[in-house]
Design a protein that fits this description.
heterodimer, A: 783 residues, B: 165 residues, alpha+beta, five-stranded mixed β-sheet, 5 helices, 32% helix, globular
């Protein structure tokens, strides 16, 4: 094993691999407690119906079935409803009405998971179907049935949100030489992490303590929510322990609280026994929070020479039956206001209306920071449409309109201050790497021969690292994050963070940050997360916030330790603090490098020989409240060939140049980009969940919801530029989601680039062979 | 109603009485405590539950334990020998072929089986071989690299077969 400290910028192999490679990870379903019971859920076949009766007798007659829990049972304890993160409320179990297909209707508690499933099959529910609304535009019509009868406001409209200067934007459109307008639908998709959601709840009646192991990306926030919701039942925050074990992928889908978690807790409190709930894949896809579902109308205005002047966007956001998105409180439409993207607009205006429909709740992320993919896809599609409309090369058009490198920090017309960027450099690098000019020549030759080839660019700007406490909170909890570092007498470290890795490799990268700051080898550092009894309070891992917030907290805690270590070193070296200098891993007397104390010697002294007047020990906690968001960016170029006979889109090459500031571990960053690109490919060409007019889900299992396999996924080509964040202590930015944000538009732009000369301006994603074949047939290009 | 089955798992013989409807994956995980084999879907699509049955990769969520009666099974726990990682495991570590680790056991078992029958696969052959195993984290590039790496190592110095074979 290596015993040196590597620190930032090194492709350190991952610490967490050791257990995963041997099948020794501990995921939620691996937890098995003595006497554990199993909970399974009865779900609605209807998208909207009144519950006339629930007959539990058949289920209760099955040996091993212990209870059937209904909404009326929960209502006695005030638990039939729970608050959502967006200050709406959501049914745990319905008292009389279901609002979407596969909604939880009753829970069956049994001694075995097979018996619980038998019980679910034996529960008989009588429904009276009600009129269904699946289209949010129809939900806003005056005669639409009101879905949320529990609310005072008798409307399906949830909220209106707007940002920017409407009057200035309208003026710019009136004065514009060229305008383009396009409807873009970004369909509903589902994160579908390979591990589904679940929990084990253990209520200890003697200690009065609840331990909840659960698939959560935000254990501390969950604990607080449980304490606030169930306080009237005697659950207090110091007696609630939430543990997020190894998580088999999150991508945003493990931020919300689902009814199954609440039911397992209620069942454990009721029985005094541990209760496990694990959803199956169909429950996961059909009922857990979804992403996107944005109906956008976008307009761009430009001068004749191609200079962009204004952006105007109107969006209807389908939030399903409950507004259970996981956005910061002040941002019902997330960070959609990043939608001016990488371009220097003089005026912009965006508005979004949230709407209820008979679909599962959500508007959660899909590996992206709060609606940033929606914003990025919109602006990058529109940029291409405008470039084509003007007859300009899409690359040239972007280079003309990018925010200039010297303009940072840049204040956008929608209110963000971009920390740093060099967009021209990233796009030029991508163009060089892919051989852009040659590709354009090849395309012209092929077009002359009637072959369909397209080149698509996406030059995105993200906004990640929520966030500064003056702006960002979830249910009032400020979105700082935390780190605690304890150095033990022999110089070995246990460090704990308020975030929770779901595959991002925090055990390795956080150790690298500490190694970088303190010179202690990564092998001597253990990183722990996810246990609210031990880790400092933090808001969790999503929206690419771990490095910008908790990573920064790790650096700040390490620097506090270094400050104290300096005092101890001065004592040991009998020198004045001002005469000491730091070289990674040791303090030495300036001018006498031989007179030095290593961090390990200092750690030992902190417990055996600490200076008079100084507290013993060597540890620190830091809560990092970022001064600004970080703004990673990149330029992606995609080349596609289209089969005229079948309409199939084949990605020939895809070059991704990313800039996430200073890099902690290049191997892990590249892995994050590979994964993000694949989750950008997915909605561009394959994934979509649709509903028929009765609210029946089409695409509710892996049989018909098409995750890309290794065969569909191209060999991604990656590169980078490095523009450090000026405000992050390590100059780093988030990266986990950049590629998911940037990739869809690059692929869609490539397809339309191949078809523009045929008069095709736009196809909504996913761009399936059927959609392409249909337009080719309409235009007489194929039979 | 229960049935009596005899199976060999990672070289160890087991006998058990199981319900006929018990899925093989639940037998491995719940009866034998081998939780390295995961469950990711109900429809034989994701491959997280892939194990080897008589040397061939199968999806253990779609096989009843009784169908494994008399068979020789190998799971991820059987890959390492005497604490020494198998080259397929080393490949995944060296090439960063895993992130959350949930699909990894199934991926490695599929990769292991591929290299048993095709010691020198092309990239396309690797991609087709793992096309029944879904990964949401890695984008597959480094999984392909990991299997290539293992193939190279196995060709230059054949490792002892895992304990199950």
């Amino acid at each position: 094993m290596a015993t040196q400290a590597h620190g930032m910028g090194h492709a350190v192999k991952r610490k967490e691999d050791a257990r995963f490679l041997r099948g020794k990870g501990t995921y939620i379903d691996d937890i098995k407690l003595p006497g554990m019971l199993y909970l399974d859920i009865v779900r609605s076949p209807y998208a909207h119906a009144r519950i006339k009766a629930i007959h539990a007798e058949g289920a209760l007659a099955i040996p091993g079935v212990l209870a059937v829990i209904t909404g009326r049972d929960l209502d006695k304890y005030g638990l039939a409803w729970m608050p959502t993160l967006m200050s709406d409320r959501q049914m745990v179990l319905p008292i009389d009405t279901v609002l979407y297909q596969s909604q939880e209707v009753a829970a069956v508690l049994a001694t075995d998971r097979y018996i619980a499933a038998d019980g679910v099959a034996a529960v008989e529910v009588e429904y009276e179907p009600l009129p269904v609304v699946v289209d949010p535009r129809k939900a806003l019509e005056p005669d639409a049935p009101i879905l949320r009868q529990d609310r005072e406001q008798k409307t399906n409209h949830i909220w209106h949100w707007e940002v920017g200067d409407r009057a200035a934007t309208d003026r710019a459109f009136q004065e514009a030489a060229v305008t383009v307008k396009q409807d873009l639908y970004i369909p509903r998709i589902h994160v579908s992490s390979i591990e589904t959601c679940g929990c084990v709840a253990r209520w200890d009646p003697v200690e009065g303590k609840l331990t909840l192991w659960m698939t959560t990306q935000a254990p501390h926030a969950i604990r607080t929510v449980v304490a606030l919701v169930a306080g009237h039942l005697g659950l207090a925050e110091h007696k609630i322990r939430v543990v997020a074990p190894d998580i088999g992928g999150g991508f945003g889908g493990k931020v919300p609280v689902y009814p199954g978690y609440v039911l397992a807790v209620a069942a454990s409190v009721l029985t005094g026994k541990p209760v496990k709930w694990i959803e199956d894949r169909m429950e996961n896809i059909q009922a857990d929070s979804f992403a996107r579902d944005y109906h956008i109308t976008a307009e761009l205005a430009a001068q004749r020479d191609g200079t962009l002047t204004a952006l105007r966007v109107k969006t209807i956001a389908d939030h399903g039956a409950f507004d259970a998105a996981a956005n910061p409180s002040k941002f019902p439409a997330g960070l959609f206001s990043i939608c001016t993207g990488s371009y220097d607009f003089k005026a912009a205006f965006a508005e979004v209306d949230g709407v209820y429909t008979n679909k599962p709740p959500g508007g959660i992320a899909y590996r992206c920071s709060f609606r940033v993919t929606e914003a990025s896809y919109m602006i990058e599609r529109m940029a291409d449409i405008m470039a084509h409309e003007l007859g300009m090369d899409p690359a040239e058009f972007r280079l003309k309109n990018f925010i200039r490198a010297e303009a940072f920090p840049y204040r956008s017309p929608l209110g963000w201050t971009y920390d740093s960027g060099n967009y021209h450099a990233a796009l030029r690098k991508a163009m060089e790497k892919i051989g852009y000019a040659d590709l354009r020549r090849e395309q012209a030759e092929k077009r002359a021969r009637g072959e369909l080839m397209g080149i698509g660019i996406s030059s995105f700007t993200e906004i990640v690292g929520a966030g500064p406490s003056h702006t960002f909170d979830i249910l009032g909890l400020k979105m700082f994050d935390s780190a605690e570092i304890r150095i033990h007498p022999t110089g070995k470290v246990v460090a704990r963070f308020g975030t929770k890795s779901q595959g991002q490799g925090h055990e390795t990268t956080y150790a690298q940050i500490i190694a970088h700051e303190l010179g202690i080898p990564e092998d001597d550092i253990v990183v722990e997360e996810g246990d609210t009894d031990t880790a400092p309070y933090g808001l969790g891992t999503y929206a690419s916030r771990s490095t910008p917030t908790a990573g920064a907290a790790g650096a700040m805690a390490a620097r506090k330790i270094r400050d104290k270590a300096k005092k101890i070193a001065a004592h040991l070296l009998e020198a004045h603090e001002d005469d000491l200098a730091w070289e990674r891993g040791k303090f030495y007397v300036k001018g006498s490098p031989d007179r030095a104390k290593t961090i390990q010697e200092i750690a030992f002294a902190a417990y055996t020989n600490h200076p008079p007047g100084l507290e013993a020990g060597l540890e620190a906690v830091a809560y990092y409240d970022p001064p600004n968001m970080t703004f990673p960016f990149g330029s992606y170029i995609c080349v596609v060939d289209i089969d005229k006979g079948t309409g199939e889109v084949k990605i020939r090459r895809f070059v991704a140049v990313d800039d996430c500031g200073n890099i902690i571990n290049p191997m892990i960053v590249e892995g994050q980009i590979h994964g993000g690109l694949t989750m950008g490919l997915a909605p561009a060409l394959y994934e979509e969940i649709t509903y028929d007019e009765d609210g029946n889900i089409r695409g509710g299992s892996f049989m018909d919801y098409l995750l890309p396999t290794a065969v569909e996924t191209p060999r991604w080509e990656t590169d980078k530029t490095t523009t450090p964040s000026p405000h992050h202590p390590l100059g780093a930015k988030g990266v986990g989601e950049s590629a998911t944000v940037g990739a869809p538009a690059a692929i869609a732009n490539a397809v339309i680039d191949a078809l523009w000369h045929l008069g095709v301006r736009h196809l909504d994603i996913p761009i399936t062979p059927w959609k392409v074949w249909k337009v080719l047939r309409e235009r007489g290009v194929t039979e | 109603m229960v049935s009596r089955i005899s199976v060999t798992v990672n070289g160890t013989a087991h006998q058990a009485e199981v319900e006929p409807r018990l899925l093989l994956v639940h037998f491995l995980r719940e009866v034998l405590g081998l939780t390295g084999t995961h469950i990711g879907c109900d429809t034989t699509n994701c491959g997280a539950c892939t194990v080897l049955m008589d040397g061939r990769p199968v999806k253990s969520c779609t096989i009843f334990a009784v169908q494994a009666d008399g068979r020789d099974l190998m799971t991820v726990e059987g890959l390492a020998t005497d604490g020494q990682l198998h080259p397929i495991q080393e490949g995944f570590h060296e090439k960063h072929g895993l992130q959350c680790g949930f699909c990894t056991p199934g991926m490695m078992m599929t990769g292991y089986a591929l290299l048993q029958r095709n010691p020198n696969p092309t990239e396309a052959e690797i991609r087709w071989a793992i096309s029944g195993n879904l990964c949401r984290c890695t984008g597959y590039v480094n999984i392909v690299e990991a299997i290539k790496d293992a193939a190279e190592k196995l060709r230059s110095a054949p490792a002892p077969a895992g304990a199950g074979r």
